[in-house]
Write a structure and sequence with these properties.
Elements lengths: L9 H14 L3 E6 L6 E6 L7 E5 L8 H21 L5 H14 L4 E2 L3 E6 L2 E7 L3 E3 L3 E7 L6 H14 L3 E7 L4 E6 L1
Parallel strand pairs: 3-10, 8-9
Antiparallel strand pairs: 1-2, 4-7, 5-6, 7-8, 9-10
Helix pairs in contact: 2-3
Length: 185
């Protein structure tokens, strides 16, 4: 991999790590031919142990058996993806993987959801969201590469839940170090 003469950038490191993960190799080389002297940087990739943190994943007793079962399926799908592909990819990739895995597990979902923007009890616009609606009851939001969900992401999911009149939301975060699962009511 070549640099542009200014040294190696974060994108160079990210790209080689993605290649190492994809090809299941432990050692990669970044080579910079631009300066007078060739620079070589060895990159060793060691997969991290896969950890699931579901502290925010409590299910109240009043939820129907159908909803509880679907939520457990979401958890199993996310764990399967994390174990198979690991952590460190973008949220777009994990959303696509979730679509495939949820479909394979028999959950019906809609994506490209447009949530109403409501002001003073009036719908003023519709906004396309990255959320999925599962079995017409659960709002699913998948994010990645953050240590924990931001207050913005949690508030965004809560607002969409209210505006779509759904009983429960699930946020799945494929963070840098662990898979995190949260439920929102």
């Amino acid at each position: 991999m070549l640099s542009n003469g200014r040294g190696f950038t974060g994108e160079h490191f990210a790209q080689i790590i993605h290649y190492l993960k994809f090809f299941q190799k432990r050692l990669g080389l970044l080579i910079d031919f631009a300066p007078d002297k060739v620079r070589i940087k060895r990159i060793i990739w060691q997969p991290r142990p896969f950890i699931v943190n579901d502290n925010g994943f409590d299910l109240p007793g009043y939820l129907s058996t159908t909803i509880k079962s679907a939520i457990q399926t979401i958890r199993q799908a996310a764990e399967s993806i994390g174990q198979q592909f690991g952590l460190g990819y973008s949220d777009v990739i994990y959303r696509e993987l979730m679509k495939v895995e949820l479909s394979r597990r028999g959950l019906h979902f809609r994506n490209n959801i447009e949530a109403p923007a409501i002001w003073k009890d009036t719908v003023i616009a519709y906004q396309r969201t990255p959320f999925f609606i599962l079995d017409e009851q659960i709002l699913l939001h998948t994010i990645a590469l953050s240590n924990s969900p931001s207050s913005y992401e949690l508030a965004r999911l809560r607002r969409a839940l209210q505006n779509l009149a759904l009983p429960i939301g699930v946020l799945v975060n494929f963070s840098y170090r662990q898979l995190q699962l949260f439920t929102i009511f």
